[in-house]
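Re: beginner question about structure tokens

> Can someone show what the tokenized structure looks like for a real chain? I only ever see the sequence side.

Sure, here's an example I had lying around. Input first:
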Amino acid sequence: AGASGRGWLKRRTTLRPDLRAAMALEEAGELLEAARVFEYAGEHAQAAALRVEIARSLPDRAARIDVLREGCARIPGEGPEAQFLHAALAEMLLAEADTVSDPAARRGALLEAARALEEADHGSEAGEIYEELGLLTRAAAAYERGGDVTRLELVLAVLEHKEHHDAALRGLEGMVDDALASGRRAEAHALLLERGVEELRLGPLAGDP
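And the corresponding structure tokens:
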């Protein structure tokens, strides 16, 4: 055991100074600082594992989210470490969305979770959230990226229907403007009633704002 311990110590002394510093911080219990030094040194796998460990140990969910959010910003690209962190962030954000009572805060948490899921290469799960939020164009893109052909086709059908709906209403609006401009108020009134009936028949259709 002594020989193996001395071998580990010898290997450690050959490491770069930044890695030795990160390992020393980790051994001292300064996990967040250790993760940051590992990130700076390009040791993203170790940094990501530390950040998830830290996040799961914190009692406050907002602090957990901040730790993971910072890690996602500091580890760029689409590598496995970045995807791992984004998946963990999405999990925390979805838990946050389930507990907040403010609708705007819930929507914000869901939107950030969907973006994190996209970065984690979980396109189908992201698409479901975008669809729930009424962001159908984003949902379609996420489903396409995730290879979820069935859901993609359904969303594209809704978007096509919405496009026809909007075009029909724009046509009615143009006819109303023409009628008013030429003094045909009764015709304009009838067209406005027609628009109201059309809105009731078709109902509100979701779409990206």
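Each token stands for a local structural state, so reading them left to right follows the chain. The mean pLDDT is 82.
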